[in-house]
Amino acid sequence: MDLGIKGKNAIICASSRGLGRGCATALAAAGCNIVVNGRDEKTVRQTAQEIRDRFGVTVHEVAADVSSQAGQKALLEACPEPDILVNNNGGPPRRDFRALSRQDMLDGVTQNMVVPLELIQATIDGMAERGFGRIVNITSLSVYMPIGGLDLSSGARAGLTAFLAGVARGFAGKNVTINNLLPGKMDTERLQSGIRYGAEKTGTSYAEQAERQAAEIPAKRFGTPEEFGQACAFLCSTHAGYISGQNLLMDGGLYTSAF
Predict the structure, then answer these.
(1) pLDDT by residue (tens digit) across 114-156?
(2) pTM to 2 decimal places
(3) Residue 99: which domain range?
(4) Are 74 and 192 members of one domain?
């Protein structure tokens, strides 16, 4: 399927590995020129080169923390007029809410709410002027369904969702869409950390905990960064211009709801 975005310019935050890399790969496959970002310079360089070699698109490398103003500046210097913005960032580590300090909470809200809003502020008017824009925020299933130890991450991401609900409607008429992708149990380092957390709490092995968690999912498996990336690429496509302000769950049916 031709997504109609060949030659578009895309910033994908935290895209040197995991779900962000899945999104960067899918957008490059659709013909987009992309910015690959991550904190580890070696990983960024390796991911960028693999994508260049595979798809022949222009790939800019930005080794920086997207949570910092310097990191955001570097992203925007690498791609001053993005047509596509995929907001992604690591979340706070699993922790009992009673152990969170005020600074912990401020840092978590900055990571998972303030930073994507700042990047949207910096890019959305240009998208509207050019008559095309796609913004996808990677949030979490925990926006809908509590996940033990991720209360801070859940609260910040839910705040981002509520904040942007009205913003999305205000720009839909300019062919600029804002949507959220909510990963469930995807086969990433974040999931592996959660499996270890669950194993420690229950006194089971990692393998037993992984099997138990996969069995709870109607699809009977964990999701992959590759299929997550394809969903992201569709939301960024010309075909998704009538979809805005929505939350797309990718959880294998784990969240039980008719609506």
Answers:
(1) 999 999 999 999 999 999 999 999 999 999 999 888 999 999 9
(2) 0.95
(3) 9-184+224-249
(4) no
